[in-house]
Amino acid sequence: MRPAPDGADIADDPVTPPSNPIPVVGPVTVPALPIQVGAADGLPTEVADPQPNTPRRRRWWGWAVFFVLALAVVVAARWNLNYYALEPGTAQPVQPFITVPPAKNHPVSHSVLLTDVRIGRVTALTYLFYKLQGNTALYPLEAVTGGTPPSQLTAQGYLEMSQAENDAKAAALIRLGYPVTSTPSGAVIFGTYPGTPAYGVLEVGDVVTAVDGTATPTAMALTTALDRYHSGQSVELTVLRGGKGAPVQVPVTLRATRVDVGGGEIVTLKLGIQPEDQVDYTFPFPVTIDVTNIGGPSAGLAMTLGVIDALTSGSVTGGHTVAATGTIDSQGDVGDVGGVAQKTVAVEGAGATIFLVPPQEYKAALSKIRPGLQVYAVSTLDQALQVLAAHGGKVPPAPTGTAPSATGGSITG
């Protein structure tokens, strides 16, 4: 056997000529088939077609596969699954967000760290990636939103942060013995339900101060005022858009609507709002907290400690790198937050040695603890200050009473 020019094999045996050979006049052209002249008889012998278009066909198939894969990636990236992913965020000093009068300001050498988590919708493209991340947690959509439309989540987060800033200022000044007064000023809209009269008419952060001229200084007062009306009636709401500016009159026609308020609970609402109390504080002097690009109430404890540190001499942290998470109210009670396991990873990355968390999240923090970080569960501001005092922090004396001790846990090394 010997190779043909196109890679096929042809026989070396001579070909027996036919009994009546066909005369050949001039050159012979066989369309679409190249020829190989036989050595024995000079007759044309057919060989395999080398398919000169093969490279072009291969390029075509290559581009087709590329475009199919690209389209699949685009579709997978836009295909939202019913999950949210929580990842470790950042741990950053709270002090740059706090401003107090220069005459009362004290230099802070080791600021308390506030910490956050990154939250994002899971897509078909990112699902496997998130599942393989040891420090990322996936939560069902309902567990994160509580039935609230995802479009309102960001606005709710910023509203919660604004409320936490005011509560933190009040808690810090009260703890330092300053007089602080609070006045209910309306019902703030925390959310509205799709398909109800309020949806698209009232926005997160709007404050309702009256219904048909009847004052509604609290969320309960608003609910009571609406109870006097039945489905189909129209009412006029007095509203502060975004809680600011001059009041505007917003007419709404009530309509009984069945709403899933979360967890499969179905209720009938005439307006379709989630109201909360709006409280205005009066402080003895201006204190500003302006945390940007972070939503939610979980920085309350850290902001409170930061204000106290700015208004007192010495270091509240005792020179340690301290991180804190937890909601706060004006009386200094610390509340539960989410994502503490991911926050623990963030504060470790920032070099924190002390981490203050709500008691409900103590075990979650311990699940991610590493040598060198000490975690303490605190349910009040006074407990948090006691922990810092035990580590050398200079803590102002409490105006009255003594708070119970905190629960602590640590790993050293």
What does this structure look like?
This protein is α+β, with helices and mostly antiparallel strands and 413 residues long. The protein folds into two domains: 87-116 and 151-179 and 285-413, Ribosomal Protein S5, domain 2 (2-Layer Sandwich), CATH 3.30.230; 181-282, Pdz3 Domain. The chain contains nine helices and 23 strands. It has helices spanning 54-78, 127-131, 141-145, 153-175, 219-227, 300-311, 340-349, 362-366, 381-390, and strands at 2-3, 9-10, 35-37, 44-46, 80-93, 98-99, 113-123, 137-140, 181-192, 207-211, 214-215, 234-240, 248-253, 257-260, 266-269, 273-282, 288-289, 322-324, 327-328, 334-335, 354-357, 374-377, 407-410. It has a seven-stranded mixed β-sheet. Strands 9, 10, 11, 12, 13 and 16 form a six-stranded antiparallel β-sheet that branches. A two-stranded antiparallel ribbon has the order 1-2. A hairpin with a 2-residue loop joins β10 and β11 (214-215).
Q: What are its keywords?
A:
six-stranded antiparallel sheet; Ribosomal Protein S5, domain 2; Pdz3 Domain; single chain; 2 domains; disordered N terminus; alpha+beta; seven-stranded mixed sheet
